[in-house]
Amino acid sequence: MLQRPKPTDSEADLLREQEHFLTSGAPSAANVVRRPDKRRGEAGEAERDSGETGGSQRDVVTIEDLPDQLPSLTPAPPKKSRFKAGRVTFEDEDAEERLDRSDTHISAVLSKIVERDTSSAPISLPAFTGTAFPKVLHRSETNNQVRGPNVFSSLVLFFFLALLLCSIEPPAVSGPTLVSGQGLGGSDSSGETMRIHKENQAKLQAMSQSEILEEQQKLLSQLDPGLVEFVRSRKAQSVPSAASPSKHAEDKITFAPLCVCVYESEEDLPVKPQKEWVHMDKLEPEKLEWMRDLPAPRRKGTKKAMQARFDFTGSLIAPTEDLPTHLGLHHHGEEPERAGYSLKELFLLSRSQIIQQRNLALSTLANILSKARAGEYLSVLKGNMVSSLLDAGLVFLLRFALDDSVEGVMSAAVHTLKALLVSAEDEECLDCTFSWFRGLASFPLLPTAQEEEDEEDEGLDESLKETAKEKEERKSDHDVARQDVIKGLLKMKLLPRLRYILEVVRPSPRVVQDVLEILTRIARHSSSSATQVLDCPRLMETVMSEFLPTSWSPLASLPPLSIYGLPLASAVKLLRVLATSGRHACARLLNSLGVRERLSCLLSAEPSELLLEPTEALRITTEAYRLWAVSAGYGQACKLYISQGDECPPPPPVSWGHVTGLQAALLGHLKGFLKSLDNPVQKDSSLTVIPAYLVYLEAYYHQLSRQVLLPASYLILVSVCIRIVVKPCFMEVVVKSSSVVCNLQQSSHLGPETTPNLPGLACSGWRNRPGLVVPSSPFPLLTGLGLLVETITGIHKGLSKKVGLVEEVSYHMHITYVPTEPEVAKHASLYHQVALVLLPWLLPGSEYLAHELLSTIIFSKDFISEGHSGGPEAVELGELKLHEETQQHTSPSLQTVGALLREACVQLPSIRGCFLTHLAHLESSVLVSRDAILGHNPWIKSHLLPELTGPILPLDWPFLPLVSLYERTGVSDGGGLAVEELPQGSLQAVTHCLQWLLLLEVWREDTIKAVLPVAKLARLSCVFLCSSDLFLERPVQKLTWGLFRLGSRLDSLDLNEPPPGLASFQDLYSALLAQYEAVSFGDRLFGCWVLLPLQRRYSATMRLAVFGEHVGMLRSLGVTLAQLSIPIERFTSPPEDSLPVLRLYFRSLVTGTLKFSWCPVLYVVALSHVNSFIFSQDAAAQEVEIARHSMLRKIYYLTDEVLLSLFPLLVFLSSICL
């Protein structure tokens, strides 16, 4: 029988038992089964591979009756984690990220190890002794050290430490006062502690005072300072405060706590504690220090800016102002003597756990924002307050505060957000101008900052670049809010939160008004933002049902405690602004949200019948009419009160029968309002109403002119209108209000704070400063009068004599009537100058007016009277007189300016066609603008004007064909021309552009002064950079010579100022020099253009570029002094003071690079400056003297006969010096 191996068996015994087992043939208790490796394929393949390769085989031990899978414990309940229920998970949360957060692996633990600061830890160094070797440490001397987890030795050390720290003489107590011994694991723990205590006392009594002090210092140097402080504090608490001093008090050594305030008497205390005060039985001087009066504020002795502090109303507190503490303005840590809170402290308080602090901080920020938007801090604070708050994260702070569960904090956050976004004065200004001509149109309040192109998109094809929408989605909330505050708030789900506040929270009336104003500001941002307001689930439904109900009960109290269920003027205004964004949005409001029914109800009732407070009722009625006007502007809501059988495109046609007899009523009202203009009390209100009557009367006469059969008395009707309306209105505008129109720049009012990412209209204080938007402004009266005059004169041209002023003054005061009467034609030049000044001021949305100006006035020969009244001849006579006075040979082109002007006047129609062709890309905008201005309502898509990126045309629009050609064919970044030949018609376009520029420079010089001289020079340089031979064409040569003569005399030319669109003039000049060297062929015109920036008053860098990098061009720069038409003194005076330029002048003269036959002008210039430098008697630096002597030494060895003849005295002086 086989036996199990025993522990005492040797290796030979085990081998013998194994051989016996194998020979017996008994079955084994375990079998070796070779299972297939799933990682290597099937079983057969694994065995074949292992057999072929002869690799090692793995043994798998199996036990009989053991299943392959573990049995399921079905009776056992599933394990539940008690922490899982409290764990918050999200559906879109990544499981891998969640595992990383809860990872407890050793790597995760080690990554969180923080090194402690050991800079303040005590370091004990070994004591120096006189012996050669350190003293042997015996076990008996180490009783005071803690070794391992020995509780007994720890207690002994602790007791001994307590006795040493307290006093030399042991206190007369019955036992230890610091440790009770409860932690000992014995039955007699208290007896053990008492025994240790007595042993410590006996040991202390046997030691002298010096030994105790030495041992005390040794313990303090070896033990943890925290343990020492703990023992001190416990000892101080254990001694009674009223205990009588012992006879050994003078021998005790006590350790007072740090930073303890010691008072000699009770009179020194900030406040005397009373016995009846709770928890004031124990004196705590450190806490009483906070109750001491603050020192008086004083201005710091520094010129640096001090931190701004504000009170709760947002007013800035002066640093030296001493305010009482009961105002609550001293509850901050920094600068406790100064009253008020800084922005940093307000931000901290807004995230406080105390509700009142959060509410107070947000309210204070709202007041600060209101004052900052009004511009009250511009003169007292450095920097932009609104920008500083936005950079500090105010948007995110307010968005977090809106989610606060406390309604008071949430209301304060809404009010602060309203103060940030909404400008009440901007809204008042827009409401005031609504009745003007095209007053319902407004610009979107989009940021003006341009986004830079991503580096990832550089060099990619346009089809591979990301769209603007994809870039917007990829940006974070912070990046979006930094560029556009409104977009950032929309991205942070502001609209659903506002809907929740209105629908669920149902806050107070002020909060509701703030929310509606915020929504109005968001709708003014852009059409896409207005669409998001309409698309927000249940937002507009809540506004319509709660704040524009179809029926409501009379008010029980004024003001009402809740405005839910009552119509609000701010809600109607929100609808009006949303409708302004587009005709589709207006149709959604009218048809889907039930605005049509509510609008008809509000318009049909008088304000007194609305069962509301009178002021609110009047505002609601006014806003309802404005909403109807916006809807009618699209041709919608035109059938609210009429029923029309035949279907027709909106608006319904108006026949003469609809307006017959209307003139008498309109003229009667207008006559009464005109009389009230003399009354100072009624003047402002009359000026507000009269323009609306004029526009309405213009529509009446416009409809009259469209009738097939005009009434017989129509001329009498028009004459009556002229006598009663036109002349009195014209006298009011021209005589009484001309100072308001002409003196717009005399206001000293500081503008409000604006930021690029949160633009506004800058209308702060608009009621109290002169301008075109004030209530007393004559501008709306002028526009209405202009429209009426245009229509009247269009009916019959002979009426212009009765009017006395024939012009069309539209929204931009634009003149389009062609003068035909002699009395009017004599002022044609004035009208032309006004049109030229107004053209570059037209903003987007007025493209049709710009097109009309260009088509009718700008290029009309009727308005350029100089062309047919002896203007060219006068220019020629002036040139002849100049020639006689100078007695110099000038270039032939200078005598042909008169002929060039005569030719330009003949080519005015072609010049107009050239400019209109280059503005053809504005055709779609012109059509949209035409529909809006002419009132083609069914074709108007939106009353929201295009984005305000600047005027339609730049100030330098006369150079447009030239600049456009350069952008297409000019010098590229890598050098050389972008195309081999110019497009067809380029020569003719450049010729027409130069003709127009010459005409403006001679006859309209004042109108083109707005363009900087350096900008003119840079634009005209495109003539030489567009092509290799364009400047050689004869028409271009003649015109450019004439312009060069006019431009070269500009004393205000400043080349140090960079031209618009260029980094510096130096870059443009480098391109001109390279182009001259390549293709000039010594052209005199090109040479004069290159010489112009080399005058002495301009920067020396351009002279260095000519004589340094492009010195080879001196051989072909053959412009003579007579051809230059610039006095040579401008090149030679004052003497050159740049030593590098002087060295280059001298080198070019000595080496023969510069000769008089090659480059006469620069030869004279270089020679003059070198002579002045060498003969100068002024004291100079050592470097200058060394350079002067070096030049003298080189002159001595000259071999050039020409130079020797020019330097005879210099040669003599140099021989003396040498």
UniProtKB/TrEMBL annotation:
Primary localisation category: nucleus
Record domain RPAP1 C-terminal: where: 307-372
RPAP1 N-terminal domain ranges (all copies): 195-236
Cellular compartment(s): Nucleus
Residue spans of biased composition, Acidic residues class: 450-461
GO BP annotations, alphabetical order: transcription by RNA polymerase II
Protein name: RNA polymerase II associated protein 1
Gene (UniProt): RPAP1
Ranges where the record places region Disordered: 19-83, 450-477
Residue span, RPAP1/MINIYO-like TPR repeats domain: 958-1181
Compositionally biased intervals (Basic and acidic residues): 39-51, 462-477
